[in-house]
Amino acid sequence: MKIGILSRKASLYSTRRLVEAGITRGHEVQVANYLRCYMDISAKKPTVVYQDLVADRDAPGEELDFDAIIPRIGASYTFYGTALVRQFEMMGVVSANESQGITRSRDKLRSMQLLSRAGVGLPVTTFAHDARHAQGLIERVGGTPLIVKLLEGTQGVGVVLAETRKAAESVIAAFRQLDANILVQEFIKEAGGSDIRAIVIGGKVIAAMERHAAPGEFRSNLHRGGRAEKVKLTPEERRTAVQAARALGLNVAGVDMLRSNRGPLVLEVNSSPGLEGIETATGLDVAGKVIEFLEKSVPRGSTRDRIRG
């Protein structure tokens, strides 16, 4: 099988591991920088052409011919990256995650609306355009402390803990001055600065870790000095993770959850979860599970997105 990994850097841990896993299982694997690809949109023969302008600007482009692709699309390039995934879908190429699922997961508001509709447990969340609604937003989430999030933030960037009402009003007003879209969310005190990431592949949880925030930090992201360890999920947590991935139409997902007094609450669903933290914490071959999923999916050879919205 010919597998294409759409990634800007072949040296990234997750990309390297996927390449290794694919080769180990006997497949031909190529890393293609999706920003160096262009599309020929044709009714008769849609194609994707890869041209490495850095190595040789005058070299002819190479038409990419894959049986399956694994999108590793950065948040800053979601629009172009998902357009490229759609082009491959038009060509009958199976994608580990389909374009609509990636798009849904990158829009935090839309994803939470879809999760809510599916009955997935969520922290109480409010959203508004006008900072003059700050009082109502704060009251709806149960007062302070609370979390204010930029819709476009990733890896803990654009997430602020407001411990007092005045601080919350100031942060909301400041974000609106930047014309930024924001979410206001209840703070789950009993989580104690920890969260859980469950990796869901093909409708099953195949690995999970608990992440703990660094001292003095409320965000548990490993990029911010957090630490991770293997964790055993409860049946309810497993069901919640699978339900969340399914609600967004994702075959491969990292589902971030908090343990609360009212059960697991989903914070975010990531369509390109990093592999280094989860493989290090659990010792499991998560990359190999992604390849295994593609092996089972390629014979079907068609996109299967059926999620409304």
List the helices and strands and how they pair.
Elements: E1 2-6, H1 13-24, E2 28-32, E3 37-40, E4 47-50, E5 62-63, E6 68-71, H2 78-90, E7 94-95, H3 99-106, H4 108-117, E8 125-128, H5 134-140, E9 146-150, E10 159-162, H6 165-177, E11 182-186, E12 194-201, E13 204-212, E14 227-230, H7 235-248, E15 252-260, E16 263-270, H8 276-282, H9 286-297
Parallel strand pairs: 1-2, 1-6, 6-7
Antiparallel strand pairs: 3-4, 4-5, 8-11, 9-10, 9-11, 12-13, 12-15, 13-14, 15-16
Helix pairs in contact: 1-9, 2-3
Question: What do you see in this structure?
Answer:
The chain is of the alpha+beta class and 309 residues long. It folds into 3 domains: 2-97, Rossmann fold; 106-120 and 190-298, ATP-grasp fold, B domain (D-amino Acid Aminotransferase, Chain A, domain 1), CATH 3.30.470.20; 125-187, ATP-grasp fold, A domain (Dna Ligase, domain 1). Helix content is 31%, strand content 27%. The chain has helices spanning 13-24, 78-90, 99-106, 108-117, 134-140, 165-177, 235-248, 276-282, 286-297; strands at residues 2-6, 28-32, 37-40, 47-50, 62-63, 68-71, 94-95, 125-128, 146-150, 159-162, 182-186, 194-201, 204-212, 227-230, 252-260, 263-270. It has a 5-stranded antiparallel β-sheet with strand order 14-13-12-15-16, with helices on both faces. A 4-stranded parallel β-sheet has the order 2-1-6-7, sandwiched between helices. A 4-stranded antiparallel β-sheet has the order 8-11-9-10, covered by helices on one side. It is globular and about 60 Å long.
